[in-house]
Specification:
Shape: globular
Number of helices: 15
Order of helices and strands: HHHHHHHHEEEEHHEEHHHHH
Strand content: under 5%
Helix content: 40-55%
Amino acid sequence: MSLFEPDRHEALVSTPWDPVRAGAARDAILADVHDAYGGPEALWRLHPIDVSDERPGVLLPLYYGAAGVIWTLHRLGAAHRDYLPAVETLLERNRADNLRLANRKLSCFTLGDAGILMLHWQLAPSRALEDEIAAAIEANMQHPTNGFGWGAPGTMCAALFMLESIGDARWAELFRRNADILWHGLAFDDGAKCYLWTQHLYGNTDRFLGALHGFAGNAFVLLKGAHLLPDAQRRELFKRASHTLATTALRDGALANWELCARPSTHPGMRSIRVQFCTGAPGMVAMLSSLPRDPATDALLEAAGELIWRAGPLIKLPSLCHGVPGSGYAFLKLHARTADPKWLARARAFAMHGIVQNARFTAQYGQQKYSLWTGDLGLAFYLQDCIRGVGEIPLMDVF
């Protein structure tokens, strides 16, 4: 079988890497974001492809909304106004949206309370906000989606960020308690012949493999906090994660990719194969590149990198979730793992392609897409990392 679908990709531009041009493109995105701000109520206008009867107004969470835009502006040193008045309104507005759309409050990190509270705390630290963040992490421990996007792995990552920021032992304890629950949900699948988690998502029960909803994202969080785990559990984590990565891989000579799901599913489209961060080789590489080095794992991750390069840039808007920046982060992670300069060169080639795509789509739609993970803020972040020669994925590696 083919390991990628060619009609989802386009030819790579031949523009040589130019850090000055990359920096100018980053700055232009950020300047436009600054100019397009409509105030604490209006925030940033919705992109035409996001407009629907379900979502007629502004978007709010870290993942695809105003919280992620503000976080990016602060992280990249481009917050040239006071956004705190806007941030102070986001929590209740997002809760109202979630009640309207899903009839429930979301405590999760990228789409719910925990992430917005952490942004608020970052701009105006207080013990009261810390307590609210801890309560959100606690409330999300048993979320049935069991993936980074909505589930406990995302809020576990939030606990690690808080631990890094202030060192309070309660964040380590929250992580360990949640890690114990997550670990006990990692079960051997007789059909797949490896360890997997089960996700209850969109009305289906599946065993996803990818970064945002499945195995790779869950394993990433445990690997990120492995220093907080007992030695024996840490060794077993390395063993199981490496085994599942290898067992679920689809190989074609020097190339490797992964399907969305590890076993037959009733979910439509589950047997399709992608080359995106959210599902497929880019996310598998980015999430599992911190596994201990060994020849077999090294070869498999590099085969996935070759697949991403062979497939070429995605034709979609240049976003982290399913666009050029998300794929490019796999190259940055491989460069960090192997020190081979070809991976950095490939990451930068994708960056130059992302600049061309950004100009094309901005002209087509008459505006930028004001979103960190599904829009142009992710490209700005990726351009910054390509200039620096590092790969620090927003909301996963850094907050």
